């Protein structure tokens, strides 16, 4: 049976029983880095379940979270044969791995992954607008709306990101994110139940605040 190279240790991981040997699967715990920015790009990865965060380090050591991924999303883009971003699981995740050479041999796989990359690119365009034009309060409202399932009017969101990770995603400081959450609470738009739980009281008002992106 084909083996998977563990990107963190260089060791091998045995694919789970019943897995297609041509599409090995990794089951990864939360908060594990599965790809490192600048490492040789050998694979493209596809999220089956769970959540993954892509990030880049700036020269001064600061981190920018560039993308949040869920089931169906794809990562492992490369520049000059090196990974462009690091990838870390936010929750326990199942990830399919594809050798990059497989895209040349399998046009159906290549077309499917390309469609996913196109969809993700559109989401990143919205994120660029958020970073460039929105206030801190609007950014946090946008972030919470993004986490809400379609059709959900109110309800409790379970946050898999820390406040610092949210700040890195929104281009803000930790203190600014904390103040924005407090202001949303003051306005009656959210209830802060725990550090990792936020109850949305009024989706309509949140959408108006975030510009309905």
UniProtKB/TrEMBL annotation:
Region of interest (Disordered), residue spans: 1-21
SMART domains the record matches: cNMP, HTH_CRP
Residues in Cyclic nucleotide-binding domain copies: 33-76
Keywords: DNA-binding, Transcription, Transcription regulation
Domain HTH crp-type: 134-204
InterPro entries recorded: cNMP-bd_dom (IPR000595), cNMP-bd_dom_sf (IPR018490), Env_Response_Regulators (IPR050397), HTH_CRP (IPR012318), RmlC-like_jellyroll (IPR014710), Tscrpt_reg_HTH_Crp-type_CS (IPR018335), WH-like_DNA-bd_sf (IPR036388), WH_DNA-bd_sf (IPR036390)
One Pfam family matching this protein: cNMP_binding
Record's keyword annotation contains Transferase: no
Stated name of the protein: CRP/FNR family transcriptional regulator
Organism whose genome encodes this protein: Ancylobacter polymorphus
């Amino acid at each position: 049976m084909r083996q998977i190279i563990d990107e963190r240790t260089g060791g091998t991981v045995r694919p789970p029983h019943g897995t297609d040997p041509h599409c090995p699967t990794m089951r990864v715990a939360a908060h594990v880095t599965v790809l490192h920015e600048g490492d040789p790009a050998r694979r493209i990865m596809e999220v089956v379940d769970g959540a993954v965060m892509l990030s880049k380090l700036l020269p001064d050591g600061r981190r920018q979270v560039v993308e949040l991924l869920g089931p169906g999303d794809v990562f492992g883009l490369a520049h000059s044969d090196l990974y462009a971003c690091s990838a870390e699981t936010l929750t326990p995740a199942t990830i399919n791995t594809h050798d990059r050479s497989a895209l040349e041999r399998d046009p159906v796989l290549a077309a499917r992954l390309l469609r996913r990359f196109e969809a993700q690119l559109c989401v990143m365009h919205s994120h660029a607008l958020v970073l460039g034009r929105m206030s801190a309060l609007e950014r946090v409202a946008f972030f919470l709306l993004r986490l809400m399932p379609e059709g959900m009017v109110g309800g409790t969101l379970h946050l898999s990101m820390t406040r610092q990770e949210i700040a890195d995603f929104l281009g803000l400081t930790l203190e600014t994110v904390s103040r924005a959450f407090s202001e949303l609470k003051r306005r009656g738009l959210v209830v802060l139940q725990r550090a990792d739980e936020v109850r949305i009281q009024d989706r309509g008002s949140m959408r108006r605040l975030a510009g309905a992106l």
